[in-house]
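can u pls check wat happens w/ uridine-diphosphate-N-acetylglucosamine
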Amino acid sequence: MDKIRIVGGNELKGTIPISGAKNAALPLMIASLLTEEKLILENVPRLADVALLQRILGNHGVDITTNGKRNGDDPYAGQTLEIDARVIVDTIAPYELVSKMRASFWVVGPLLARMGVAKVSLPGGCAIGTRPVDFHLDALRALGADIEIDAGYVLAKAPRGLTGARIVFPKVSVGATHTALMAAALARGESVIENAAREPEIVDVADCLIKMGARIEGAGTSTIRIEGVPRLKAARHAVLPDRIETGTYAMATAMTGGDVMLAGARPDLLEDALETLRHAGAEIDATNEGIRVRRNGAGILPVEVSTAPYPGFPTDLQAQLMALMTKAKGRSRITETIFENRFMHVQELARLGARIHLDGDTAVVEGVERLTGAPVMATDLRASVSLVIAGLAAEGETMVQRVYHLDRGFEKLEEKLSRCGAEIERISG
Ligand code: UD1
């Protein structure tokens, strides 16, 4: 298993290109199941999760071609996928594949809407909490599907197609909003989704569906209206920039000090996180090229933050912010409201000398003067990158094990950081 070795202490200086958003690329690829015509997606990041979803879609009969790299191409440019789901050979998504990545459960909506049947494994346990799928299933039931659960599989049927309905989510869910949106796009009549997730990735998927001929209004607000259409058509769409990758490198820069341009990043996608970083003492400027982050001389100031659905502070940046706060001048409080048990990074950060005390869903972080390098273990995607951030500012060597978690969501992480002056390398093993 590969490891990442970091020797901390260097400031970050230079440019980091921001990749396409993983959390938009995955549902966009799944949306290809809604049409017999070709969906072309540009700016797709090269990530393990994307490759895995290619396999899962391939299992349903979807044909995906990836453009090759030409000489002179920007090595950080995203890939273009041509996705052809003309023939669906299989409406079953097996446990062996779905259990590896939760978002692959989301094939249930499009398969059901287009084929009238889907058999999809329940995603199973997850390191960051129980993460059930009840909202997804309730939404499909509201659209007229017959749902049974048998031997770990969801069997969804709607032989005469889905019918538009009012769907009211009891709690904001990104995944369930994707499911409802994609299924309602091909349902007969009008659907209204209330308490919908407002995340930019929902808007990106809705924009792509609209290019495919769907009739959708209100994506990005809590109420989305969809007028179902009988079929969707070919489209071309570029994935929006990854706001979590953006926030991660912004925090890394705030941590080490220095001056970094996050090229291609869009500040409007993460205003709350950027405001938090300003409070923490970073200088943030939006430019034509992207977002410039600086911290010169001044120390890191403590903050109080609660995670919340968009436009609030994202749970996917909680671990990274905590890493930054380990070196703040004073006491920070970070409350996690979206997922229970999303504090696995606390123990690992403590191995580097961080002082963090857990009080229910709140982590109280007492900033320390110095962190010292140590071997640590990546436990999930965002937690693992928080260890990288801490390692960049720790004295001596930090060795991060189980980096396959990082490869799920961060493209060329070591390269992007080392070209800004970090001492970081992958050790294959
Ligand atoms: C997505 C993101 C993930 C992010 C999360 C919250 C992708 C691929 N993943 O995950 O990175 O951390 O949003 O912003 O986009 N819930 C239920 N029942 C359900 C569905 C969800 O109770 O049927 C609960 C969850 O346990 C959680 C909350 O709702 O407490 C929000 O989860 P949700 O927004 O659905 O997360 P995901 O879509 O899985």
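DSSP finds 14 helices and 24 strands in the chain.
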